[in-house]
Each structure stands twice: as structure tokens, then as C-alpha cells.
Specification:
It is elongated and about 105 Å long. It folds into 2 domains: about 90 residues, no CATH class; about 140 residues, Immunoglobulin-like. The longest helix has about 35 residues. The N terminus is likely disordered. Helices cover about 35% and strands about 20% of the residues. The protein is of the alpha+beta class. Strands 3-2-1-5-8 form a 5-stranded mixed β-sheet. The termini are far apart.
Length: about 260
Amino acid sequence: MAALALALLAPPASAAGLGPDAANSPNADSIRTAYWVMLAVALVLGTALIAGLVVAARRFRARDDAAPRRLTAARGTAGRVGAGLGVLAAAIFVFGVVMTEDARDASADESAESLDIGVVGQQWLWRFEYPQDSESSTGEEIATVFSYGELVVPVDTTVNLAIDSTDVIHRWFIPALGGQVEAVPGEVAETSFRAEEEGVFEGSSTQFSGTGYPAMRATVRVVSEAEYEEYVQSLAEELSEAQAEVAGESAAESPDPEAPEGAAP
């Protein structure tokens, strides 16, 4: 079983549809390892069960010239088999607990920078809120810097996500970066990942949330630290310009309180 598990930890390309996506963070790698080990255990148990059924069917089947043989076992056989299965179940349970804790803590790296980002699910898209200074480069106060659909993060940085929802239950899932996390209205779920390489990683909500659910995709784009800073600054500038334009239009449309009634604006 151990040899088979180790062999499956590096599956061939043809097994890509059978297993999870290639991991790009330590916690996703732990989840992938647990998946292949448990698949190996399931294959061994399933093969043993099928083999036992085939042997029993051939050995104890009824024949025209003789009555079927009776299945007999030595005293205590059932107890030994049950004990073996119990030990296996306990080992699987302990393995699950260990791998869960490992996946939960794998992205924690004291030497790496950390970044806190808010993730808000709504029908049917994701909103990402980035930390930023309260003022843009022009000195104007800006609201929260955010983006929709695509989350941009720096490489080799522990990204802490605070996930919630504005309407119904959604589920955040980027297979290459970690496990699934539910976005529940009124609750904040936390997860983290640390991308090891730059690239674009796709995901989607795996929780049915209404008619537009199939279109609820998410993308995480991992870039360098400099590119991330430039991206957030660009978002802040665009938001500041939009706010200034809206404020200007509102001022132009507002009537002058000192103008005489009936006067043309």
C-alpha cells in the first residue's frame, strides 16, 4: 500500500482528469498528497474486496454434481479481521487529522510577507477588496480599492482571505491554491494560501446559488511584488478619477440656492 501510494504521488499526465490540478501553494500540495494517498488506499481495499468476491463465487458456487461447499473459518477469524479493519480506520482518521492541520498551516511562513484581502460573494460574481492607503497619489481621499472577477496577488506572499457573502451561500474554490471555503451571509470564513509561482489560476463556485451559478468564475493572477503595487495603485487612481467625475456631475446638476426662482441655470 505504501509503495502504491508513493507511486501515485507523481501521477502521469494521463491521470490529470482523475486527480486535482497541479498545486501552486503548500496547502494545496498537502491536499493533493492526501487525495492520492486516500485514492491508493481505496484502490487497494476495492481490489481486495472484488478479488475476495470472485474467489468466493468460484469456490463456493453450486454445481450440478455436488452441493455447494460451506464457508468455514477458524475461531477468532472474524475478530482478527475486524481488528485489522479497525486499525486501518484509525490510521486513516489520524492521517486525515494530520493532513488537515498541515494544509491549514502550510501557507504560514514567518519569513514571507502577508496580505489581508476581503472576498465577497454575490449573485453571481466575486468582489475583492485590497488594503491600501486612505489617499491616492493626487492627495484625494478614496474609498476601498476593489476589483471584480480577478484577484491579483504577489508571489511568495501569504495571502489571508476573509470570505463572506451578501445574499446566498457561495463557495470559494481555486484548486491550485487550496481547498474549498463556503461564503455564508453574516459570517466570515478565513483561509490563506502562498503562491509559489507566477501565473493565472482558474476556479469557480461549487455551490449552487441560483440560475447564474455556472457563470460565477474566479481567477487569481499571481504577479511580482512590483506589479502588484502598480496594479493596486492603478485601481486607486481609477476610483479616485471616477469619484471626482461623479462629484463634478452632481455639482453641475444641483441648482444654485441663491439663484432667483425661475431663472435659467
